[in-house]
Structure formats: C-alpha cells, structure tokens
C-alpha cells in the first residue's frame, strides 16, 4: 500500500470519527439533525459555507479550464473570491433572524414560510432536488475518480468507498457532522492546494518564468480574453462566469442553510473575514496550477486531471498523500452538504409536508437519515453507470439553482412587497430561461451565459409580478411585521419566537 | 509584471483587492451587530433598558457555542 493510500485511510477514519462524535446532537430532534441546533460560530460557518461551495470542480473543472483557456479561466475565480462575503453580508444576518422568527428548519421550508403558499414548496423543492441531485452525483464521480487514481482500485469500488464514508457521517451526525467535517476539510484542502501551487511554481522556475513559458505556447493564454485573443472575446461568458460563483451562491439552498444554523445573527460579520481570507488563499490556485500544467505536462489527454497529475509530478510522495486528502476533502465537503440537503428536501420538504405531517421528532430524524441513504444509493448507481463531464454538470446545475433562487432568497429578506405570485413567477422564469437558453444553443449563438439570462429574467419576474399583484395577493401582516423586526438590530422580542406566537412562528400554512 | 500583460495583472490583482475592501467596509458597517448577541439565551421577556436592548428573548433551541 502506498503512502498516499495511508493518508487517505487516516483521513477517512477522522471524518467517520466526527460523524460518531456528533451523533448525540444529530439525534436531538429535527433542529439538531438539520441545523446542528443552530449553534455554529463564525469559523465553522464560514469554512463550511466555503468548502461546501468549492467542490470537486475546483480540482477537476478549474484545472481543466486553466489548461484549456489560460488566464481567461480566472474570471471564474474573480467572482468566486467575493461569493462568500457577498452571501454573508446580504443574506447572513437577515436570513438567520427571519428563519428563527418563522420557525424554519430547512432552506426550502423557509421560502414557504416567507411566501405562505404550498405552491412555493411544490415548485421550489423539485427544482432544487433535481439540480442538487445531479450536482451530488458529479461529486461522487469526482471522488471515485480521485480515489481510483491514488489507490489504483477500480472506479466502481473507489466510488463505493468515497460514497460510503460520506454517507456514514452524514447519516449519523446530520448537519453538525457535515459542518465540522467541512470545517476540517476546508483546512485540509487549503493546505493541499497551496502546497500544489508552491510545488508547481518551483517546477516551472517561478511565477514569471512559468508565464513566459506559457506565452511561448500561445501568448493569448496570458490575456483575460481567451485563447483566441481580444477579437474572439465573449463578454457574455465573462459576465456569466463572474455571476455564477459570486451572486449565484445566494441561490444555493445547501449553502444558504449555513445562515440558518448560525449561533447568532451577528456571526455573519466575523464569518465574512474568514470567508474572504480562505477564498484569497484557495480559489486562484487550481486555475494557476492548470495553466502551468501546460508547461509541466503538455498534451494531456484529459485536462480535468491536470491538478491530479501535476501534484503527482511535482510533489514528493508523502506530500502527494496530503494533497490527495485535500482533493478528496474538496469533493466530500460539497457532496455531504448536497446529500444532506437533497435528503432534507425529499424527507422534510416533500414527504413530511405533503404526505405524513403528524410525525414525531425522532421519526422525523430517521426519515431524513434513510432518505440520505436512499439518495446516496441511487446516486451511486447513476454515477457508476455513465459518468458525464464533471465541470459541465456542476456549472449547469449551479446556473439553474442561481437563476431560480437568487431573487427569491434576496427579496425574502429585503423586500416587503415580494409576494407569493412574484416568487412563483421568479422561480419558474429563472429555471425555464436558463435551461432553455442552454438547451437551445443560444449560448454559442449569442455568447451570453445562461446564468446572466436566468438572473435577469427571474429578477424582473419577481419585481413586475409582485408589484402587479399587490392588491390581489398582499403580503400577510405577520410577514411584514417579521421583516420589520428582521431589519432592526437587536434581540428578537419573545412574543415573536418559535412556539410563542402562532401567527409568527412555525406557521406552515395548513390549508394554503 | 510577472511575465503577464498589464491588463491581466490589473484584473487578477485588482478585483480580489476590491473584494478585500468590500469585506472590510462590511465589517466596519456591521460593527453594531453585537447588540443582537443578547439573543443567545433561553426565551424570555425583552427589556429595553437605558443601555439598549437587554432582553433574553433569543434562541429557543441554542445548545451553546460551537465556533
């Protein structure tokens, strides 16, 4: 057994250990399992939010983009670096406070409670479940490929091990296990990626020498306009690239649940410092490694493996083990969050909301656990059968999530006039426009990214429809009161807290 | 600089610098958010004393600090 495999075994045992350690909190009812008892501080909140956003894409897709597009690929990083602070500053405090006033336990349930209609959940849950399921599948594939490469075991078995470890700790500890493993994984992946970057720059003779060598291959790779140069620049793609990972974060239910799990609304403030610091260190690195791989490993058959193969080529074997653990950490930290979120949507937002509402807390937790298990099994079967390109799947899923949900989440916390018809119109318009734009081939014809189209469409929809239907569908008075309280800086009045005011807390509409 | 065109250098260092400035401005503007920290205890009556809100009407389900 090689040293890389030993590192991975230690890493897997550590993650499983966190699952066992958190099982007690995870078993304390739905709030314990789904939100970790709303007890997380700034460091865990920030790194959990970032690591669950930075997926296997960062090691596969980002390296591939760097290898094929040169510095043009860094447009994705430019938006990504600010994604965390943007999300925390715009949504963090308000979503934490409003979700507590409304008694929300899931990020999709929060939408229904803010826009009181069962149609909100009936539309939001399937869209989110569909996108998140494909997203989690892509992470399974990335994990399987990574493990296969390090250990040499066949892909199907490597996939089974990777999925098995994720399912084990998510099943046991729920959100708290996911948050703590994500926190540890964020540190591991940052150390691993910075290590690869340093080794890469040493191998090419430094940053300047590496760039000069890349310039000899194609000088346009050093520009921000793509391999074809300024004449072929696609401004629509650039705008979309920046939007996908900056504003787009605010539409991802599995990321936004981080706000609801914060110990206090003010945690968002300190968390922003951790998020930006982590992003500056971590995000540009895989793109630069991908670019420099053109010099170290010219003519790669599969550019998605650029970061893996560069690490293998430039680092000593013991360091490769840590780096590989970092790569697996990036993949697993996103996969666990997605898996828990998809399990939550299927069990809480659909099954318990529409099929069996009178369930005990203990039964509710077990339903969530078994849903996680079933979705993981289905994801494994799909992933092992016909794995598609990881980068394409991730970008498409996140694009649709962003287009469908960014305006409804932002307006939920900031705009008192945002009502049910506006939210429904926004989610439908965002989904249809972004999917339609992608499938119809308009991306290639116009050069405009579907994310940009989807966000503009869904934003216009919520504004126009909400304003047009204010009289026929006014925002309920208790929601307006909750929003006014959310806007204030100060403790939530006791009368507005969960369980103390039927009009303002846990008010899932029974007949809406 | 660094063997890169000037535009590339300006973009890849300038935009992250803008995000750092955004973060610092956000941290400065949100310096009073600590007033909400009193909400960390068990549910209870809110009292608006002369020193600002001191109510304990906060999390009904808090289980402690896990930072």
List keywords for this structure.
heterodimer; A: 512 residues; mainly alpha; globular; B: 67 residues
Describe the structure in your own words.
- The complex is a heterodimer of chains A (512) and B (67).
- Chain A has 512 residues and is mostly helical.
- Helix content of chain A is 75%, strand content 0%.
- Chain A has helices spanning 3-21, 23-26, 29-35, 42-53, 61-69, 74-102, 107-114, 118-151, 155-203, 207-217, 235-245, 253-260, 267-282, 284-296, 306-314, 317-355, 361-385, 390-414, 420-439, 442-446, 450-468, 477-487.
- The longest helix of chain A is centred in the middle third of the chain and has 49 residues, at 155-203.
- In chain B, 36% of the residues lie in helices and 6% in strands.
- Chain B has 1 helix and 2 strands, in the order αββ.
- Chain B has a two-stranded antiparallel ribbon with strand order 1-2.
- Chains A and B meet through helix 4, helix 6, helix 10 and helix 13 of A and helix 1 and strand 2 of B.
Helical/strand content category of chain B: mainly alpha
Order of helices and strands of chain A: HHHHHHHHHHHHHHHHHHHHHH
Question: Number of helix segments of chain A?
Answer: 22
Mean pLDDT of chain A: 85
């Amino acid at each position: 057994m090689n040293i890389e495999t030993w590192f991975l075994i230690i890493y897997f045992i550590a993650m499983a250990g966190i699952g066992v350690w958190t099982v007690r909190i995870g078993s304390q009812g739905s709030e314990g399992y789904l939100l970790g008892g709303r007890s997380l501080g700034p460091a865990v909140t920030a790194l959990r939010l970032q690591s669950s956003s930075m997926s296997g894409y960062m090691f596969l897709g980002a390296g591939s983009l760097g290898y094929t597009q040169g510095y043009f690929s860094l447009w994705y990083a430019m938006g990504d670096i600010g994604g965390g602070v943007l999300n925390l500053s715009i949504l963090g405090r308000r979503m934490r406070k409003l979700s507590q006033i409304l008694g929300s336990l899931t990020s999709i349930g929060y939408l229904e409670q803010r826009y009181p209609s069962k149609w909100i959940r009936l539309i939001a849950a399937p869209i989110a479940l569909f996108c998140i399921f494909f997203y989690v599948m892509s992470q399974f594939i990335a994990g399987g490929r990574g493990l296969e490469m390090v250990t040499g075991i066949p892909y199907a078995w490597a996939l089974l091990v990777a999925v098995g470890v994720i399912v084990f700790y998510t099943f046991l500890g729920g959100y708290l296990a996911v948050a703590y493993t994500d926190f540890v994984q964020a540190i591991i992946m940052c150390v691993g990626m910075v290590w690869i970057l340093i080794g890469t720059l040493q191998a090419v003779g430094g940053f300047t020498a590496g760039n000069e060598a890349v310039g000899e291959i194609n000088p346009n790779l050093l520009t921000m306009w793509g391999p074809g140069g300024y004449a072929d620049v696609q401004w629509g793609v650039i705008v979309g690239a920046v939007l996908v990972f900056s504003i787009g974060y605010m539409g991802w239910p599995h990321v936004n649940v981080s706000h609801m799990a914060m110990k206090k609304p003010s945690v968002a403030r300190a968390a922003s410092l951790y998020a930006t610091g982590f992003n500056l260190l971590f995000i540009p690195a895989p793109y630069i490694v991908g670019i420099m791989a053109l010099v170290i490993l010219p003519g790669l058959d599969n550019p998605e493996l650029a970061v893996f193969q560069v690490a293998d080529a430039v680092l000593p074997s013991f360091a490769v083990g840590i780096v590989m653990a970092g790569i697996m950490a990036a993949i697993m930290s996103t996969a666990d969050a997605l898996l828990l979120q998809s399990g939550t949507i299927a069990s809480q937002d659909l099954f318990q909301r529409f099929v069996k509402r009178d369930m005990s807390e203990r039964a509710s937790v077990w339903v969530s656990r078994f849903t996680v298990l079933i979705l993981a099994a289905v994801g494994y079967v799909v992933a092992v059968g016909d794995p598609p390109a990881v980068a394409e799947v991730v970008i498409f899923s996140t694009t649709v999530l962003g287009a469908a949900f960014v305006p409804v989440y932002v307006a939920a916390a900031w705009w008192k006039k945002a009502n049910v018809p506006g939210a429904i119109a926004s989610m439908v318009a965002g989904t249809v426009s972004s999917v339609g734009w992608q499938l119809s081939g308009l991306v290639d014809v116009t050069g405009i990214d579907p994310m940009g189209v989807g966000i503009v469409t869904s934003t216009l929809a919520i504004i126009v429809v909400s304003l047009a239907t204010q009289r026929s569908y006014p925002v309920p008075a208790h929601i307006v009161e909750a929003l006014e309280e959310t806007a204030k800086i100060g403790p939530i009045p006791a009368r507005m807290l969960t369980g103390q005011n039927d009009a303002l807390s846990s008010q899932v509409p029974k007949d809406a | 600089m660094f063997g890169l065109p000037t535009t590339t250098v300006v973009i890849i260092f300038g935009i992250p610098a803008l995000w750092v400035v955004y973060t610092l401005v956000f941290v400065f503007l949100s310096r009073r958010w600590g007033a909400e920290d009193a909400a960390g205890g068990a549910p209870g009556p809110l009292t608006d004393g002369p020193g600002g809100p001191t109510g304990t009407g906060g999390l009904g389900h808090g289980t402690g600090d896990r930072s």
